[in-house]
Fold each of these.
Amino acid sequence: MGVAGATSGDSASNGGQAAAANNPYLAHLQPAASSGFGGVYGKSHPFHGLIPGKTTVEQQLAIEAGGINGFTGQPYSDKYREILKKRQELPVQKQRGNFLKLVHENQFVVLVGETGSGKTTQIPQFLLFDELPQLKGKMIACTQPRRVAAMSVAQRVADELDVKLSEEVGYSIRFEDCTSKSTVLKYMTDGMLLREAMTDPTLERYSAIILDEAHERTLSTDILMGLIKEVAAKRPDLKVIVMSATLDAEKFQRYFNDAPLLTVPGRTFPVEVFYTPEPERDYVEAAIKTALQIHMSEPEGDVLLFLTGEEEIEDACRKIRAQGDRLIQQGACGPLKVIPLYSTLPPHMQQRIFEQAPAPRTEGGPPGRKIVVSTNIAETSLTIDGIVYVIDPGFAKQNVYNPRVRVESLLVSPISKAAAQQRAGRAGRTRPGKCFRLYTEKAFVKELQEQTYPEILRCNLSVVVLQLKKIGIDDLVHFDFMDPPAPETLMRALELLNYLGALDDEGELTEFGAKMSEFPLDPQLAKMLMDSPKFKCSQEILSVAAMLSVPNVFMRPREAQRQADAAKANFAHIDGDHLTLLNVYHAYRAQNCSSDWCWDNFLNHRSLKAADNVREQLRRIMERTGIELTSTPFDSPSYYTNIRKALVSGFFMQVAHVERNGHYLTVKDNQVVLLHPSTVLDRKPEWVLYNEFVLTSKNYIRTITEVRAEWLLDIAPQYYDLSTFPSCEAKRVLERILTQRKFRDEHDSDKKKDKREKKEKKRRRTDKSVISSETSSKMVRLNMSKV
Ligand SMILES: Nc1ncnc2c1ncn2[C@@H]1O[C@H](COP(=O)(O)OP(=O)(O)OP(=O)(O)O)[C@@H](O)[C@H]1O
Ligand SMILES: [Mg+2]
């Protein structure tokens, strides 16, 4: 379906007009073309009379209450009318007039409204009918910090506008673009918008940008804010709305050139908050207990429980199911459906949270209930229909970066007050709710900080620095960050990019770096891909990069750990985990991507399917950027060696050396690390390259492959310049290798010299010709340089 009826219509809308000629329902589409001037709708079009940037509340309400959908030309469905009634009750509706007035008069607007008041779903629609971006061939973007929110909100708004998802309303997340030519309202992760800015630095394709959940201060949101501020100065036509439920509004207003503030009072339904009288010793146990208590004693309504990470969540789900089953057998309560949610779960599994609660087992029996156990990805934006109870233990995993030792990790830390408020806001969306905080009220007031600490102050910035350089922002020190990152963190990012060849010694983006930024990957992965043709293995490295970009493919259910380990052992490669992943991918393809085969081998089919998809997308980027796709013949002895060398060319900064005492130390930073128990390596190679640093109670390195010191010295001489190394065993080993090499080279060249001289003498004897000493020494020099 196109933007039918607009005079500026594309081919799709022209198609719509042609169809209109024979269809009385579409009659309203026709006059548009005859209206004579661009950007205005014909008389019988539902949008007739709207002037971009000047619409009124009455006009907008009339369109919504009309009979025909202005986007599709179809009569509105019953479902549309049903949803419309609920939408009309939302608190933001009362502010529609004020909102329109503010956007008409200002370029920036800051909007703060309580959770559930209708910001994410309604404001973009108010703006859509006001901006009419379709007339200018543009779109409205609404950013979300998380993929799951972008996807689910887009679906909801598509329903609210009575259009098909991906047509007028779509979403875009990394490796998945669910939009089309007719998309006018696009929900997207903030990271995706930032990526788009690299090819469209003034964000030309958007007439308005809504930065939602700005309080989360994700890295991408912070960078976008700075960028959009610059773009807006050049594009007075661009409207920018910054929204959140829990925002330090003044700070945002000041940052956006003293933007006006619109506050939306009132929540749709009340949420009652309970605290524990005493601090809980074990928050996971307490959370499980609370969930089951709710199930036994509270009236109907689903539960959302916040925990910190995959393992904890899967474990809690298992316990809730087991204990729940016992209660159900005793007849104490109704059936339970327990659903995990975390970011590494594939999108389709994430969608399970929207499933209905199970029905009671007998009519009139105790109600069935859904319990969603989630990380903080369900904290903002999401409306999960049916959630009435929220359990908030007060913790989340947060990214922490230590630039001194270049280690980025997720650590369990207390959440902020703003986050607690967001969590409570997930209850009471579709009816009154309750929030159980598993900490004391005193702790809430005294111990939780007001706002979440911005991510830019606690993460590795290399991807972002590369993106900013690509966009053309060279002076990072004077870039207008809301909170500037620590200089050391910036330096580390510049240093990494310099070692990878993305920035030159002056900090300028190189041609190589510009290409690197095209890949939606960490710079190390991109470098590995781009260098792989040198090692004749880009096809294989493409598969490895794809496998590293998806959630873990190995399943290890607690009740079948031994079988799962045995299944994994079938794929194990003697040199380590990267090649094991490659074996898995090859086997998966050889089995025609069979899901049964995956199941039998304890492999996650969805992850492998995702890897296949990611590989295809990366392959296209390789083709576009002219990177050769090649392979070493499988029977060649260098097949695997070449792949390992290509790994080194990207990850030479992530290498550890085993010390005499059996500990591994990371090179240069000298951090003590252990090989993660998931590795297939059953020995301790002297040098290992790792994909990831995992900080729990101990430091682990995960996804590991054995490499050779010689490769490090040859492939990354700039990094393995031993004069920059701290004194350590690794340095001494490398020095020894270099000394041996020097000795060997000298020895070799001496031998060669002897040989040459002998040959020369022989020739002279036979030729009896005379060669000047000068020529002879030149020959030696030339030959030497070839050696
Ligand atoms: N998928 C859905 N199913 C049912 N109702 C929904 C759905 N999505 C939204 N709603 C309704 O619309 C209301 C507004 O949702 P919206 O996401 O716009 O709120 P919000 O102000 O952005 O909240 P938050 O600050 O939590 O992001 C919800 O409270 C809920 O009543
Ligand atoms: Mg929202």
Amino acid sequence: MKILILKSNILNFHMLKYKCTVCDYVYDPEIGDPDSGIKPGTLFEDLPADWACPLCGVGKDEFEKENQ
Ligand SMILES: [Zn+2]
């Protein structure tokens, strides 16, 4: 039982949403960013270094984890 809970926590951690601090756009790893060629299931950490906010164009540095 403990192991199951631990696995579930890890999954949630990896699927964290990240929010753009400039325009409030939320990157959802379950959706990805199809307009930029990012497939659903792509973690924020796995986005290319040159990925930019699709709304305002700032880089990943301007994103922070969304509180859930
Ligand atoms: Zn933005």
